[in-house]
Structure to design on (430 residues):
């Protein structure tokens, strides 16, 4: 046993001040003022007024902490706490500040605020690791505006270039590229956004648990083993619009009924695909029926499909089965089916060494934890394409998120930040 080493470790562990739940609450509540739907949860869609204001707010917080601020052509924000050897590959931490419609104030924002608080702890304790620690706000993790999630981290991973950004349109037909340009982002450098493997030493994201597993296990932290990945599609079903009273049941080509049968098939096939240790989900979260009148048989329906799995192979098998059955239903019901795939992402394992550092930090601070998997996707899923990643979950009441009911105690985020800060420091000082 190396006593000198043990002593040194004890000193560095003791030198960490405790994260402030009050400071975390202050930042989260401040962020929550930037909201398009204050009467019903939190809505902050990419590059709407509240989202732009929230970006400015985060930059002000970064400035106050003395971080060096940089933004890239995809709108990602980087706040750097410089290490003593800034030429070394930095360690990243962070998450997103956009939300789905009528969401809560924690999904994404907790990870950004925890990153800022972790850096404040370094500053307060006079701790400067060898490597820089960068707090990152990734552009639009939620697919709310453009139908595709993780836009910023996808660009960093080289999976969304200028050509794709020009193709990607919101419901009003504006492309991501043009929106970025109109806001003054240097889009001519869009293809310089990707990060080369080796340029980032590690990236650790704190996030709320979205399954309720932590609460059920009565543990404060979840050290994530794997992040499940989605395949996302849009389908358009075209039948024949006609009169609700005048068209007998036998003569209908009802686009909605065909869609409904497809929805149930997706649910059944997903449930049937589950072995004992599998995790797979299928969700149809958006349905549009045209023309949408009580006495008209819908001639058209379009809907989204989101299939997720912890295994890429299993997801592929399942989506192929679902698509084949959709085709059969379309044939049987004499409707046509068009599909468009938005993304087919790869599940991302969290690096063993980062998991170990998170576990060590949890044990050092006496904070309880479990190992878990993430059913939700996160920017870390894309960041993992070019850097080793780790994720740390904090409990969410009843596991509810993407809802105004979403709630996480500030003290739990502070506990997570204590562990995050130690793990970041250990990684950055290597
Ligand atoms: C991200 O919020 C997801 O849908 O998992
Ligand atoms: Mn989310
Ligand atoms: Mn999120």
């Amino acid at each position: 046993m190396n006593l000198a080493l043990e002593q040194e470790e004890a000193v560095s562990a003791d030198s960490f001040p405790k994260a402030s739940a009050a400071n975390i609450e202050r930042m989260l509540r401040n962020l929550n003022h930037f909201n398009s739907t204050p009467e019903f949860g939190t809505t902050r869609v990419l590059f709407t007024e509240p989202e732009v204001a929230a970006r400015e707010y985060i930059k002000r917080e970064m400035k106050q902490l003395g971080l060096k601020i940089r933004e890239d052509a995809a709108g990602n924000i980087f706040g750097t706490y410089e290490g003593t050897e800034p030429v070394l590959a930095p360690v990243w931490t962070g998450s997103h500040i956009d939300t789905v419609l009528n969401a809560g104030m924690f999904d994404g924002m907790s990870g950004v605020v925890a990153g800022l608080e972790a850096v404040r702890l370094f500053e307060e304790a006079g701790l400067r690791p060898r490597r820089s620690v960068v707090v990152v706000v990734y552009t639009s993790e939620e697919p709310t505006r453009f139908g595709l999630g993780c836009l910023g981290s996808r660009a960093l991973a080289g999976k969304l270039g200028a050509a794709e950004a020009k193709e990607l349109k919101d419901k009003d037909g504006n492309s991501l590229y043009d929106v970025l340009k109109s806001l003054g982002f240097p889009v001519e450098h869009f293809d310089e956004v990707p990060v080369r493997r080796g340029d980032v030493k590690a990236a650790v994201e704190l996030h709320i648990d979205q399954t309720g597993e932590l609460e059920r296990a009565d543990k404060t932290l979840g050290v994530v083993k794997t992040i499940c990945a989605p395949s996302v599609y849009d389908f358009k079903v075209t039948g024949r619009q006609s009169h609700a009273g005048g068209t007998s049941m036998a003569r209908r080509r009802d686009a909605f009924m065909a869609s409904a049968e497809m929805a149930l098939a997706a649910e059944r096939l997903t449930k049937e695909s589950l072995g004992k240790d599998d995790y797979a989900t299928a969700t149809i979260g958006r349905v549009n029926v045209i023309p949408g009148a009580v006495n008209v048989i819908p001639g058209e329906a379009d809907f989204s499909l989101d299939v997720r799995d912890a295994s890429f192979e299993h997801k592929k098998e399942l989506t192929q089965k679902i698509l084949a059955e959709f085709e059969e239903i379309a044939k049987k019901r004499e409707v046509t089916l068009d599909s468009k795939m938005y993304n087919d992402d790869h599940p991302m394992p969290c690096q063993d060494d980062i998991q170990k550092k998170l576990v060590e930090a949890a044990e050092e601070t006496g904070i309880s934890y479990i190992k878990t998997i993430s059913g939700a996707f996160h920017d870390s899923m894309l960041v993992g394409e070019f850097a080793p990643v780790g994720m740390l979950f904090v409990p969410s009441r009843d596991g509810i998120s993407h809802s105004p009911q979403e709630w996480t105690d500030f003290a739990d985020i502070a506990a997570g930040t204590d562990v995050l800060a130690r793990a970041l420091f250990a990684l950055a000082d290597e």
